[in-house]
Structures are given as C-alpha cells and as structure tokens.
Automatic annotation (TrEMBL):
InterPro entries: DUF1457. It comes from Pyruvatibacter mobilis. This is PAS domain-containing protein.
Amino acid sequence: MIGSVNEYAPETCAGMPSAPPLAAVNQAFWEFWLELRGDRAMPAAGDINPAGFRHLLPHVRCMRWDGPERVVFTLWGTGLGEWLKVDPTGQNVFDLIPKAERSREKVRLENLHRYPCAFVQQRSVTDVRGTTFLFEFLTLPVAAGADGAPRMIGTGAFCSDAPLGRADADPDQRTVQRSFRYIDIGFGVPAE
C-alpha cells in the first residue's frame, strides 16, 4: 500500500511531468496517457483506443460531462465493476459520492480541463456486502469529443488486498475520500 498522496511533492524530470508514487496499474496508465498526449495539453477523444491499453482495460473508467451538474460514468473493463460489486455505467458521478463532497468534486473535475491538470485520490470504498477497501483513482483530462463534451479517463486500483474492515452500506457513505492531490501536467495546478 502506498502512503497518502498528500505526503509527496510533485517532481519534474527533464521537463516531463511525473506523478506522486502510484499503484502499479495507475502508474502504467499515467505513462500511457503521457505518451498518447505527446506535446499537446491532453489527448483528443479520438486518440483514446482501448486496443492501446488492453492489459489495463479491466481498471479503466471514462467520464463525460453531460450538462453542468451531470458527469456520466462508464466502465470500459469489468474489473472495477466486479471489485465494487456494482456497475455504475450510465450513472451520474455526483450521485455516487457523499452529498457533502459533491460541490468540491465538481470543481475538481472542471479543473482538469481549466488548467489542465490531473488528480489522484484515495477513497475508502464499501461494496454492497459492507466490506471496505482503500482504492486509488487516477483521473486525467481528455479533450472534448465530436459532441463537444469534455471527457476524463482514468484507472482505479486497490491500495491493498486486505480490507479496511466492515461498514454499514449507507448509500451516502459507500465512497469516502481519504486523500487527494492534483498532478501538474505542465500547466500548474489549482490551490486547494
């Protein structure tokens, strides 16, 4: 398990942005995303081809803005759905997190394209059986598609195979943020 991502300072090596230490799956996707974007701020929606990251596909999620208060969630692989014991495809991201975190999460998702930047967060995630695990999510910007809707893509991975414990399956507490950090992709990051 890695420590809180808030413990690490961002580093830049030879002008190439680097992320704080990440779970292996997230690190591999970070490197793929950097290569895909090339010298642009972010890859275009049409650049995202699952064949290019087939080995990571079980961990990939994609999100698309569908109005000012709605971000549609799509799982591209079955791994996240199997681990979470639910498939959130088609649901509004903001309906999946505690009400107290929604406005802050909206600003964070907007900032991905505004700066642009990326972020990594760790959340305790409680599945439908009440078992809680620490999960790390990496979220990266993707330029708007033909529909004009900005997109985000990222991966998720367990920080440890050992559960944190058991919890009530209160719908508003199924996913609780434990740590958060913006990642500078060459354009600065918001102060939070």
